[in-house]
Design a protein that fits this description.
The protein has about 210 residues and is of the alpha/beta class. The chain is about 55% helix and about 15% strand. The protein has a single domain (about 5-210), classed as P-loop containing nucleotide triphosphate hydrolases (Rossmann fold, 3-Layer(aba) Sandwich). About 35% of the residues are buried. The structure holds P1-(5'-adenosyl)P5-(5'-thymidyl)pentaphosphate (T5A). P1-(5'-adenosyl)P5-(5'-thymidyl)pentaphosphate (T5A) binds near residues 15, 18, 39, 55 and 190.
Length: about 210
């Protein structure tokens, strides 16, 4: 069965994930590879409904367990309806956030047990892990500063302390999953960031012998 590559982008708010995904999509297209772009939470009808609930600033009293389960539910729907079929059709999937966001935000940020968040999400994604994960590394203060011109959603409006716990969480995850993670300094100009990401993707294409 044909199988495309599954590439995820992680990092704090304002790290530049969406900006970089557009560049990667273009690069892949220039090499003749078809890709789809997904974002989390959301990307399906059910997922978008959950996204509205999760990001609505009015829902301040949402229980952390419910928050974690809603993110996992949105992901389960996305994997079964969009990601899995696309990969099976030989497409590349570029996902703006995935399982690592739940590990970073719901475990390191909220303080929920890492093993439970991991297990529940592995079940949600039917063990469909990314081939490679780019962590766009940027300090929490800088990331929030980049987003200050727009209205903050429920997670973005959390304290700096929360965002710093998420930042540290990502650093730990990058150590834990060294083989899968590529840590990219996201402070530089978007073109420089993009060059580094594309170099890594080209290496992966060469080793994965994708045709
Ligand atoms: N969440 C999500 C969880 O808690 N658990 C989960 O399991 C999941 C999946 C999603 C929220 O949900 C949380 C995390 C999030 O808080 P969202 O709106 O989808 O909310 O938020 P983000 O994914 O964080 O999207 P952002 O738009 O905030 O960040 P991006 O995509 O990383 O940044 P981007 O590309 O939009 O750029 C932001 C700004 O910075 C500029 C851009 O022009 C833009 O203005 N920029 C740069 N400026 C200088 N230098 C660069 N290199 C730049 N790159 C981009």
């Amino acid at each position: 069965m044909k199988k495309g590559l599954f590439i995820t982008f992680e990092g704090l708010e304002g790290a530049g994930k969406s900006t970089q995904i557009k560049k990667v999509e273009k690069h892949l297209a220039s090499k003749g590879f078809a890709s789809i772009v997904t974002r989390e939470p959301g990307g399906t009808f059910i997922g978008d409904e959950l996204r509205d609930i999760l990001l609505d600033i009015e829902n301040k009293d949402i229980d952390y367990k419910v928050e974690a389960l809603f993110y996992a539910a949105s992901r389960a729907q996305l994997v079964s309806k969009v990601i899995k079929p696309a990969l099976q059709n030989g497409k590349f999937v570029l996902s703006d956030r995935y399982i690592d966001s739940s590990l970073a935000y719901q475990s390191y940020g909220r303080g929920l047990p890492l093993d439970l968040i991991l297990e529940c999400n592995k079940w949600a994604i039917s063990d469909m892990m990314p081939d490679i994960t780019f962590l766009l590394r940027l300090g929490a203060e800088e990331g929030l500063r980049r987003c200050q011109d727009r209205t903050a959603d429920r997670i973005e409006s959390e304290s700096l302390d929360f965002h710093q716990r998420v930042e540290n969480g990502y650093d730990e995850l990058a150590q834990m999953y060294k083989d899968r993670y590529r840590v990219i300094d996201a402070k530089s100009d978007p073109e420089i960031v993009s060059q580094k990401i594309i170099e890594e993707i080209d290496k992966l294409l060469a080793t994965a012998k994708v045709k």
